[in-house]
Amino acid sequence: MYDMIIIGAGPAGISMATEARSAGIDAAKILILERAAEHSFSIKKYYPDNKLVTANYKGFEAVCTGVMYLVDSSKHETISYLDRTIAANGVTVRYNETVYRIDKDAAAQRFTITTDRGAYDTVVVVIAIGILGKPNKPEYRIPASLKDRVVFDVTTTAIAGGDVLVVGGGDSASEYCQYLVQKGNRVTLSYRKSEFSRMNDINRQSLLALEERAQVQVLRGSTITALADSGGRPAVTFAEPGAPPRTFDHVVYALGGTTPRNFLKTIGIEFNGEEPEVREAHETTVPGMFLIGDLSAGQKGGSIIWAFNSANTAMRRICKQYLQCSVDPAAAQGTGR
Ligand SMILES: Cc1cc2nc3c(=O)[nH]c(=O)nc-3n(C[C@H](O)[C@H](O)[C@H](O)COP(=O)(O)OP(=O)(O)OC[C@H]3O[C@@H](n4cnc5c(N)ncnc54)[C@H](O)[C@@H]3O)c2cc1C
Q1: Half-sphere exposure of 41 toward its Cβ, with a 13 Å CA cutoff?
Q2: Ligand 1 binding pocket includes 135 (Cβ within 6 Å)
Q3: If DSSP codes are grouped into helix, strand and coil, which group holds residue 94?
Q4: DSSP assignment of 119-155, as one string?
Q5: Cα of 160 to ligand 1 centre, how many Å?
Q6: Residue range 220-233, pLDDT digits in tens
Q7: How far apart are CA 98 and CA 118, in angstroms?
Q8: Which among 33, 36, 57, 61 has a CA at the least distance from the CA of 47?
Q9: What is the reported pTM?
Q10: Backbone phi, then psi, for 280, in 5-degree steps?
Q11: Cβ(312)–Cβ(65) under 8 Å?
């Protein structure tokens, strides 16, 4: 019988285990279940290698209320910090393990978690699986023959020295443009709005500087209506009158991710419209089941510090309501150490 099982070993899941250890829970009483072969899978897959990981991502205030912290760092430093934290916790992470169902014995305040490799009992379950497992896709069809040319990240396929279209208007879109220019590509960015209001200042300035130097062509107010296979390359049709169809070597979508609705519904989480219903301190309508990280950030989207802080908030409630433990307010990192 575990005290806490955490599903997902990204920033939220790792900080949840850290909060639990800091609050006095034995390492042997905590288990992390991760679907991928390694932790922080989303960061490893979606962040360009030279990316600056910003503490105030999406304009979140960079104040850390719990035991984990982030200052502006490289991708490598961020992953290495998460690596070291897992090792220091002494908590077991079971990789390549997928959760199928969660049953609750309400009278005993016990969950049974069934995976493809076993079943585990726990008092509290924390879901920290993020939203990046399923990237948002465009509404038009993407021909199967283009699967290596039309991608949703810049780490899976090496993209260098070609004509590349990036689609999106958030921080990821700008970071992909910066990365692809450095790799010697001729980059075009298509964004459906006329202003880049969702980017942080650094990414907006970097993108505008690339545009000024003609290293990125920015198509504002641009709507793509179709994608076709033209001799093995993606041919893109635009809705705007006078915008001719164009062919690229690669198309990279940076459209964010979606809440894994089916999975959450299967394990008993209720929805309020598009968002999972979350009550005080990220607890769901199922007592003892918590949703943290990107999953609890709502429409505005999450960040690493949001993930860290949500674990701290959930831990306070877990100690108050379910486990013998206490969160030390003095452990809060503030703006980092
Ligand atoms: C391109 C890009 C750039 C970004 N840059 C920044 C930045 O500079 N600064 C910043 O603060 N934030 C940044 N973010 C956002 C940040 O990465 C997320 O907010 C953060 O990773 C959320 O953490 P999480 O633990 O909630 O989810 P994730 O990081 O997505 O981790 C979820 C983990 O759960 C695992 N998982 C998924 N499904 C299951 C399942 N069914 N069972 C078990 N495990 C599962 C995944 O494999 C993954 O390891 C960026 C995001 C993107 C896409």
Answers
A1: 18
A2: no
A3: strand
A4: EEEEEEEEE---STTSB---SS---GGGTTTEES-SS
A5: 26
A6: 999 999 999 999 99
A7: 10
A8: 57
A9: 0.91
A10: -60, 140
A11: yes
